[in-house]
Structures are given as C-alpha cells and as structure tokens.
Amino acid sequence: MVVESVSVLASPLLVFLVLKVRGMAPVDLPDPSMHTIYIVDPADMFTRYMAALSPTAHLREGAQAGFLVVARLAYLAFGAVPGFFVTRYLFALIAIVPAYVLVRRMYGIPAGALAIVALLSSPVIITAWGTDYPDSAVVSYVVGAVACLAIPCRDRWRPWWLAAAGVLLTLAVWSHGMGLVLAAATIGVYLVVRRLRDREHLGRDIVRLVAIGASVTLLLMLASLVLLGQFDFIRPTILAAIYLSKPPQVAAFHSSNPRWILYVAYLLVPPSVIAAFWAVFARKLAHIPTPQLFVGLACTGQVAVFALLQFFGDVETLEMHFFSSTLWGVVCLTLAVTLAELGKPLFASPWARWLPALLLVAVPLAYERAPAVPAFGWLPAGLAVAVIPVVLAGAMRLGIRGGGAHPAARLALGSAIAFVVVGMAGSLLVLTVAPEPSHPALRGIAEAGDPAPAYASALGGSAGLLMDWYQVSAELPSFVGNPTYQGEQLLMWFPWHQLGTLNEPAGMFHDGFNSLPPPFAVFTAGVAAKLAHRRPAEVLLLSTTGGQFATALHELARYHAVLLRTTVLRQGPAVLHAWLILLRSFARGGIA
C-alpha cells in the first residue's frame, strides 16, 4: 500500500520526465497573464483600476478565486516559477488520485495506472496546465469531482467522497464560467443516475452538497479577502457575465457561422471517445455497472451542453480553446475506462496486465521521435481518423465476447487488445495535434479570434524560454511599485510589433485596455485622447531593446513627465527594458 501510494503521488514527476512534457505553454494571448498579476500582486490591480475598469468587467480575472487563491498561496510560499510548478503538481494530483482510485477499484492496479497515463499524457491538459489561465484548475477540479462521485465504496465512506466532489465542484464554479457549466452538467447526471440506481438518502446527499458548496464559497471569500484583497467575488462574476452577454461582446468572441469547426480536428476527440465508450458498453443500461455508467453519461452530458451553448447559444464554449480544454479531464477519464474495459482479459495475467499502460506511454514517446502530423480538418481525413477508435472499440468488444480459453486464442486476444490500445490512442493523439489547414475566409467569425493552441509541442516541447519570461514578468510589479492612493492608474507604452514577445509582461497590466495606441514614441491624437480619458498618474515603457524610450519621455513632457526609475530585467535570454514615468499633470496633487 505504501509503495502504491508513493508511486501514484510521484507519477506526475515520473511522467513529466519520461514523456518530456512541456513545462509551460506559449502565451499567445494576454489572458493568462491577466491572471498572473493577481497571483503576484492583486492589491495593485484593485487599487489602480477598480473605478475605471469595473463597469466594463475588465477586472473579472480577479474574481476567479477558486484558481487564484491556490496559485497565490504557492507563489507566496515558493516564488514565481517554483510556485507555478507546485500549483501544477497539486492540480495533477487532484486529477489523477481520484481517477486512479476509481479505475483501480473497478479493474485493478494496472488499470489505475492506465488512467494516470491517459490524463498526464494529454496534450490538451498539459497545455491547460501550462499557463495561468484558470482552465488549468477547472480541468483538474472537474475530473476529480466526477471520479469522486463515481467511486464505488462502502456506505460509511460515501459522505467523504461526496464531500470531496462538492469541494472540487465549488472550486471549479468559482474558477471560471466553464466550471459552472461543467458542475451543473455533472450534478444533473449524478441526480439522474442516483434516482435510477440508488435513491436511498438522495435528499440528504443533495442537502449535504448544497451545504458544502455554501461553506466552501464562504471560506473562499475569506481567503480571497486575505490573499487577493476582494471579499465579494460573486457580484463581479455576475456583472461580468451580464456584460459579456451584450451583443457587441458576443460578436467579438462568438462566431455566428458554425463552419469554423470543420477545420479544427482536435474537437473530434470528445465525440470519438464518447462513441467508443458506448460501443464498448453496448448493452442495456441496466446491465452497465453504475460507476462506468456515470462516467460515460457525465462525459456525454458535458460535451452535449458545450455543443448546445456553442451552436444554439452565444457562448464560445468550443471555439475558444481556453474554454473547450476544460472538457478534456473527463474525456480522458472516459477513455481510460473504455481501455480498461477492453483490457480486462489482460489484467488477470501477471505478465500482460501492465501492457495497456505501457502501450499508452509508448504512443506519445513514438510521436516525440517524429512530431510531424499534417494539417487536416474534419473532411475527409478528420472524420476518417475519428472513426478508427470507434471501430476498434466495437470490434474488440465483439472479439472479447467471442474469445476462447485456448492458449492460442488468449495470445491472439492479447495481441488484438494491444493493437486496439495503440490504434485508439494513436488516432486520438493525431487528431489532437493536427494543425488547422488553410481555408477560405469565412463570414460571421468572431472578431477576436482565438489563436490555435500549441498542442503539437506539448509532448517533447521546450519551455526554457517560456519560464524565463514568466520569471521576468513576475518581477515587473515590484519594479513598478504599489500605488500610493486609490485610482492611481498606470498605462503602458511599447512597440506593438514586439507584442508577441511582450505578451507575458504587458499582459500583466491588461495591455489591451491599459496601453497607449501605436505607433510607439509618437504623440498622436489617439495617444492624447487616451491620456485625457484615463488621466494616468504613471506610464510604463516596455521594450526588448529600450530603443526610443528617451523619445517617448520627451513626447510626454507636455504632461510634466518625470522619469522615476529604470531597469533591465534579465533571466537567461529573456530581456525586458522598462522605464517608469510619472505624469505630474494627472497624479494626485499634480499641476494641471
């Protein structure tokens, strides 16, 4: 038992080393860094921008306490980069420990290992864990909660697993809006399954879940007050949802034309896994064991709700990979249950029982040796690849049913299971990492398009430079310093052609909202209008070279600009030049 427990707890590190998992993900949008600032220096943001940005919901990132409280505790205890990895290790354990216990109790220890590998080797989950966007928390909280609700156990242990699920679902709700959607879908499926299979004490358990949710929310509010400086994160969350549901915001982020999905192959993974699951459990529902039934229905229900919100609602649940990634925890758990069900004949053999888990490790290792998958969409290649897991699962199900006891038959069956595991895992991996193909421009596409996720480099990719920029960015708030009074706003000015490199540090202070317009160091009517509207006390100059900083300071001289301090932040090859300028015309007590 001790060896088993230690092995499970150490598995994230082991998989990280064996599979050469990328430690961080590229920051292609400022959204992750908008959360990083609340981890590093939350009071700074609330003090500077509460009055100016609250009406536009641009401080909503600070309300996602289910993620931020955990990440800030790790930052305070360990620092920027070490704290980042401590948080991800915790998220990994939250995902794999309940999943391992669930699958182990259904199929045995080797199957539990299969579940661990399925979760820890997923490029989508690796990428979600790789930034400070809260999908990193939601994907772990939700899969952990689903596993806790599904775990078969004695009656005296059920309240504890139910309580754990309630805690995780509550944290998911207050981490991101997708957490609320997934929690609602999960609880809905749970109530249906309990009503059909185990009605005893259902009312009591519902009351218990509600009480746990309320208690965790209150404790989280207190923790948010102490660690983040904001007690009530519920009202800002509601106001943000109202603001984002307005037509201009919907047009900016949600596509009215659904044809975009035909070019995004990785979104074929959830339906492929669901179809493979039901192909394996193709029998009357009454004959499917309750844990397996709940996992399959939870996955099906979550994906269905996301599809409804995307194509019949106004929420970009699938077209924004920061949102769709939250589905992948339960998708991977469903895949693990499917493979474990197919691998049952091997689990009784002392020689072959570890084969499915080892093969599941071998697939990403093989990909890392030649990580080149051609670009393709749904038609025809995507659908052809997505059908492979379903066909293999269905054929294997029929093969197991008709298998014999003769040694030759057992050998053939074992070989077939190995082929199916590799075929299913390989097909799903190819779908996940396939680049989006070029295609004609489409009408009705969201104005603020989501860049393609970096799933192809999640396995075997390098994160050295990403970690360097994360460390440099985390040092920037200390250089800027805390505001001296409420509403002491800061705007940034930087060369916009460097934004790809500066996404991390500039995103820390919400570059899309708190930046002067281009061109850099040129005083235009747009710069004058932004300064007159926002009246910032300070301007932060950022650049990878420091070029034209003196010119920018000269251009701001009409506002009685004073250079407060300069720095060059370095970490490895990451270099950030910064100047902090005081505009005495706008600072409290300044001159007009």
Sheet/helix structural class: mainly alpha
Specify the helix fraction band.
55-70%
- What fraction of the residues are assigned to beta strands by DSSP? 5-15%
Q: Mean of the pLDDT scores?
A: 92
- The stretches of 5 or more residues where confidence is low (pLDDT under 50) are none
Total of domains: 2
Structural shape: globular
Tell me about the largest β-sheet.
4 strands, mixed
Q: What is the N-to-C order of secondary-structure elements (H for helix, E for strand)?
A: HHHHHHHHHHHHHHHHHHHHHHEHHEHEE
Q: In total, how many beta strands?
A: 4
Total of helices: 25
- Rg, rounded, reads 25 Å
Strand order of the largest sheet: 1-2-4-3
End-to-end gap: 73 Å
Brief write-up:
The protein has 592 residues and is mainly alpha-helical. The chain has helices spanning 2-18, 31-40, 42-53, 65-78, 80-107, 109-120, 123-129, 135-150, 158-173, 177-197, 202-227, 234-244, 247-253, 269-280, 290-311, 321-324, 328-342, 344-347, 355-369, 378-401, 407-433, 464-480, 499-508, 525-534, 549-555, and strands at 490-493, 538-543, 561-571, 574-583.
Comma- or semicolon-separated keywords:
592 residues; mainly alpha; 2 domains; four-stranded mixed sheet; 25 helices; globular
